[in-house]
Amino acid sequence: MIIGVPKEIKDNEYRVALTPGGVQQLTTNGHHVLIETGAGEGSQFMDAEYRQAGAQIVPTAADAWSAQLVLKVKEPQPSEYRWLRSDLTLFTYLHLAAAKSLVEAMQASGVTGIAYETVELPNHSLPMLTPMSEVAGRMAVQIGAHYLEKMNGGRGKLLGGVPGVLPGHVVILGAGVVGTNAAQIALGMGAQVTLIDTNLDRLRYLGETLHGRLNTLSSNVLNITEAVRNADLLIGAVLITGAKAPMLVTRQMISTMQPGSVVIDVAVDQGGCIETTRPTTHSHPTFVVDEVIHYCVANMPGAVPRTSTYALNNATLPYITRLAELGVEAAIAADPALAKGVNTYRGHITYAAVAAAFQREYTPLDTLLPIDTIDDR
């Protein structure tokens, strides 16, 4: 199979979809890999490393997009929509429930779009979303600590405090992968942490396994309102697989926070779980609402691309290999987890939550392909 890896063009996105090690595995198995020149430089992978691994370095994005299977990290940007076509399979993070224009472009082109974030194992874990959620959760606390510093517009609070001085209060909405990793880092820094979720069993487990100044709360409006008011750092870490994030924090709640407090909405790429959220970029990462600093960068792990690229490729490479070895349709038919990643196919929306987000027609994938084991929710 011919596999293409274009250079990411989203603002300050330095990750790349394949490491040289991943390229070597694919080329050893007889596949042809096209790497756009400079695609790996942001992650410190040079063209020469890819060439040595067996890739062909191509001069333009058009060359990389000409492949049968295109691998990316982030969703196509508007200038890339022209490369979408019916005989192409695109494998990347898509986050379509918050991207109406991209949904329209993918439907119109007939491209087969497989989203990393909706590939789902039988135990409901998300193998390709997990590593980036781990990165984002850990980053959220260090970024929050940075913006709490006075010279960065914050309250001037040290999250860990010092003897005789209370620590900062970190409130985390969601106890999934992002929330758990954020809690680990915040507790490690000595902060007081309040973790809010609907799943009491999950809260019970984390209460037993995480050590430090941890409080857990059941998610309801009253508890969220009170916690937000007392937060120095509020982290939105809510996820409904493939769907738009639920709005849990209102503008009124944000207005009760102390001036110079910080909000980080990691759920921004699924629409955000905080009313005042709007997507920002690494070039312009923050804005202020009601004297509260908001950081809502939709590709947070892009700031640590070397770590992120390795972590992502560890998770994606087994699926990429399967797609290349079996062919796209056979690989999808053979693997229900991979089938759940298919969001668009031949002009159809094949993921229910994406169709619901824009009131569009949903077509179950098993009506288009001979798949008997898909359990699309």
Describe the protein.
The protein is an alpha/beta fold and 377 residues long. It folds into 2 domains: 173 residues, NAD(P)-binding Rossmann-like Domain (Rossmann fold); 174 residues, NAD(P)-binding Rossmann-like Domain (Rossmann fold, 3-Layer(aba) Sandwich), CATH 3.40.50. It has 13 helices and 15 strands. The protein has an 8-stranded mixed beta sheet with strand order 3-2-1-4-5-6-14-15, sandwiched between helices. A 7-stranded mixed beta sheet has the order 9-8-7-10-11-13-12, sandwiched between helices. The radius of gyration is 21 Å and the shape is globular. The C terminus is likely disordered.
Topology:
Elements: E1 2-5, H1 20-28, E2 32-36, H2 47-52, E3 56-58, H3 61-65, E4 69-71, E5 89-92, H4 100-109, E6 112-115, H5 130-147, E7 169-173, H6 177-188, E8 192-197, H7 200-209, E9 214-218, H8 221-229, E10 233-236, H9 251-255, E11 262-265, E12 286-289, E13 292-295, H10 305-326, H11 328-334, H12 336-339, E14 342-345, E15 348-349, H13 352-357
Helix pairs in contact: 5-6, 10-11
CATH superfamily of the largest domain: NAD(P)-binding Rossmann-like Domain
The mean pLDDT is 95
Low-confidence stretches: 372-377
DSSP strand count: 15
- Class by SSE composition: alpha/beta
CATH topology of the largest domain: Rossmann fold
**Structural domain tally:** 2
Q: How far apart, in Å, are the first and last alpha carbons?
A: 31 Å
Main sheet specs: 8 strands, mixed
Order of helices and strands: EHEHEHEEHEHEHEHEHEHEEEHHHEEH
CATH class of the largest domain: Alpha Beta
